[in-house]
Design a protein that fits this description.
467 residues; Rossmann fold; 10-stranded mixed sheet; 6-stranded parallel sheet; 46% helix; globular; binds 6-O-phosphono-alpha-D-glucopyranose
């Protein structure tokens, strides 16, 4: 489609998220776009392509936005965010107010009116972009906490369309949410949607309760009556592209790479793995401490086992993230200094984003996978690990506070705050009989296979179309 037509076209389906599905890349010295690697993008891409749809989002860079452009049959409609908005909207309300508040307030949430002004402004800009882009009677699916106000703003501009909203992170209980000075605006903004989706039953129940207390709606079952409209509040646990992880895991090059990793880490050593964004919700610090306890108590030695922690850099300009990085790096240094020998490090810490095949090889090499967030909307790493275990080997240690826990009851469930409990769980994982490990893994694989990210997107779309 010629460039000038993209901006004027009306699309039957529009996805909205803070980030566009593409990111900047360089090919032969030329700046280009490439698809972002995330699960959300691979899940929604087939839908958007089939429907002939558009994706509205931010490029990740402050300043002027590029003109709308096509990439792999998806129209990308960039929304500009300026430097002040980057601070107030993205680093402020999104990442220092809503993010910590929604994650059990494990870091204090900050409430600043000058940030909130930017949050409202940016949400309005997104809503206006969608109102312009969507075809008569079309569908708009809004994603995550960055865009809570969009559904209502958009409904006021376009009464003829269907609007869905999905929250990828936990939705907090009343005691926490009601601290928010803008609680009514957030609830009413979200209630502009026809379908509001959450990862877990707890999230949906918290929302139902709060909507009734603070925004004058009436609830019945999974529905809220908002004026003359009925809003469906549903539970849609997100998942992964199971097929992609499994088939990559079976690939000979990946198998070779995984054998090589095992060799490099020391044959005979059992590998314990953590893979997370370097975020204070993920429990990396307590987990590393627990591994140290395991060694200190003599439950395992550095000749028997090794911890590999992959930490993907994230939100690095924010102070709490810088502090977390320092404390994790200090802990790793302490443990390696105390227990290491020349040529044998107890903890391997990789602060980087791994290419997809390398990540899968890492999952394949791991005997025990540690997923121990203090609070997490779902946690896809847990599901990715399971998908790669095509031979039913491997043990998953999972936090009770991950959204994935209700589906993955066959994992070794742990309290991620309990250092001793965690050390014991790692020991249990390392010493579990292969018969028991296989039984659990088989059961979990069945669960993940039945609800892939494609099923997730389909079921949300179905609810949105029919409601
Ligand atoms: C979580 C959120 C996403 C967000 C991602 C990475 O998974 O649910 O909406 O995109 O973290 O965070 P970032 O701030 O880098 O986009």
């Amino acid at each position: 489609m010629p460039k000038e037509n993209i901006a004027d076209h009306r699309w039957p389906m529009v996805i909205m998220a803070n980030s566009l599905p593409v990111r900047r890349a360089k090919t032969k010295g030329q700046a280009t776009w490439e698809m972002s690697p995330g699960g959300l993008v691979s899940a929604l891409k087939p839908f958007v392509e089939k429907a002939g749809g558009a994706w509205i989002g931010w490029t990740g860079t402050a300043g002027r936005a590029p003109d709308p452009f096509m990439h792999e049959s998806i129209a990308n409609i960039p929304v500009p965010i300026n430097a002040a908005e980057l601070k107030g909207f993205y680093q402020g309300v999104c990442n220092r107010t809503l993010w910590p508040l929604y994650h059990d307030a494990i870091r204090p949430a900050e409430y600043h009116r000058h940030w909130w002004i930017h949050y409202v402004e940016v949400n309005r800009r997104f809503a206006e972009a969608a109102a312009k882009a969507v075809a008569p009677g079309g569908l708009v699916w809004v994603h995550d906490y960055h865009l809570h106000l969009v559904p209502r703003m958009l409904r006021e501009l376009r009464g003829d369309i269907r609007i869905g909203f999905f929250l990828h992170i936990p939705f907090p209980p009343e005691e926490l949410f009601q601290r928010l000075p803008w609680r009514r605006q957030i609830l009413e903004g979200t209630l502009g949607a026809d379908v509001v989706g959450f990862q877990t039953k707890a999230g949906a129940q918290n929302f139902m309760r709060l909507a009734q207390h603070h925004s004058g709606t009436r609830g019945r079952g999974s529905r809220l009556q908002v004026g003359d409209r009925s809003v469906h509040v549903g539970v849609f646990p997100i998942s992964i592209d199971y097929e992609r992880y499994e088939s990559t895991a079976r690939h000979p090059a990946v198998i070779n790479h995984s054998d090589q990793l095992r060799k490099n880490l020391g044959l005979g050593r059992r590998i314990v793995l953590g893979v997370d964004r370097l975020d204070y919700t993920k429990g990396i610090d307590v987990r590393v401490k627990a591994f140290g306890e395991l060694l200190s108590k003599g439950m395992q030695t550095i000749h028997d086992t090794v911890l590999v922690q992959v930490a993907v850099p994230s939100r690095e300009r924010i102070e709490e993230y810088q502090e977390l990085r320092s404390s994790v790096e200090e802990l790793v240094g302490q443990i390696n200094g105390r227990f290491g020998e020349v040529g044998i490090a107890p903890v391997h810490y990789l602060r980087r984003n791994l290419p997809f095949e390398e990540l899968v090889a890492m999952y394949r090499a791991a005997d025990v996978m540690l997923v121990t967030p203090f609070c997490d909307g779902m946690n896809l790493v847990a599901k990715e690990y399971i998908a790669t275990r095509f031979d039913n080997t491997g043990v998953l240690i999972l936090s009770e506070f991950a959204g994935a826990a209700p589906e993955l009851r066959n994992s070794v469930l742990v309290n991620p705050h309990d250092v001793d409990g965690l050390a014991e769980a790692i020991h249990r994982g390392l010493t579990m009989s292969s018969k028991n490990a296989k039984r659990s893994m088989r059961a979990m694989r069945r669960v993940i296979r039945r609800n892939t990210v494609h099923d997730w997107a389909r079921s949300f779309m179905k609810a949105l179309r029919k409601d």
